[in-house]
Amino acid sequence: VQIRADADVECGASIIVSAGMFVQRLGIPPSRVFGAKRGRVSGEVVVVAPKAGDRSAYEWAYSLDGGRTWMGVPATTKATVTVTGLVPGTHVLFRYRATTKGVCLDWSDPVAIFVV
What we know:
Elements: H1 2-7, H2 12-18, E1 35-38, E2 45-48, E3 57-63, E4 71-76, E5 80-83, E6 91-100, E7 103-104, E8 111-114
Antiparallel strand pairs: 1-2, 2-5, 3-4, 3-6, 6-7, 6-8
């Protein structure tokens, strides 16, 4: 059945269903993009990094002056961190680096967000 369905891309799903089987939908892989988004309250930003693997640690930093100086955020073992207490109306840059299997990776390119 799979060979016939693969040979006829337009009708492949109906070939599978007519054989009494189910079409398996491939899941969408998780995003591998570093980004920042608004939190639930004013002055809060949620920063998400691509997962570096099991037993990884993530260091976080942010800059309020365009990247000239960086302030640290407590490290996490998850690829996400919520930063609170930011001043609404400011532009903030975020960066991260992961440590996995004892190897500390380079700092990421920064991402910017306007805090509300």
